[in-house]
Amino acid sequence: MENYLTVSALTKYIKAKLEGDKHLFSILIKGEISNFKRHSRGHLYFTLKDEGAQLSAIMFSRDASNLLFEPKEGDHVLISGRISVYEPSGTYSIQVSQMKPDGIGDLYLKYEALKKELLEKGYFSDAHKKPIPLFPKAIGVVTSPTGAVIEDIKNTVSRRYLLTEIHLYPALVQGPGSAESIRNQILLANVKNEVDVLIVGRGG
What we know:
The protein is of the alpha/beta class. The chain has 2 domains: about 5-110, CATH 2.40.50.140; about 135-200, Response regulator (Rossmann fold, 3-Layer(aba) Sandwich). It has helices spanning about 5-20, 20-25, 60-65, 105-120, 150-160, 180-190; strands at about 25-40, 45-50, 55-60, 75-85, 90-100, 140-145, 165-170, 195-200. A 5-stranded mixed beta barrel has the order 1-2-3-5-4. It has a 3-stranded parallel sheet with strand order 7-6-8. The longest helix is centred in the middle third of the chain and has 15 residues, at about 105-120. It starts with 6 loop residues before the first helix and ends with a strand.
């Protein structure tokens, strides 16, 4: 006697096979976004396609909230995620955990991540910004003592506002040790408290 499977039984079997395959549990895939929709709860629904096939994709809000860019229709993206099967419709899709634009470098993404972190901490909030004096009596400049920046600032000040003083806080502005050098000079300027405003600059 022949045994006939129910649709539910077959779908459960396919689901177990696909979702249990270690090669499909964590995959890297690239393609173009189409049919992009953002749910009111923050979930992202879209189709990932190339010239030969297409794949349904979902990114839940908990993962979408960590995105460093705003995805849109037509974007080419790099995705990591896992294959899942939705039994009621008998369809499979990729559940996206991470996504980034195809062609943007890691340094840019790190920059965006840092900017997002500082923004969330309120560092860019107007509430933390001090008003800049219209006519500062003393201007501090953290930069290289031999670069073009300090000379440009001196020339500009001499043309526009002769009553102010320029205080140079010499620092390395590129290469190894530059970040620490700039930081130390900013701290020194704060300790001395001899200028009304502070410029941190470099050429190029």
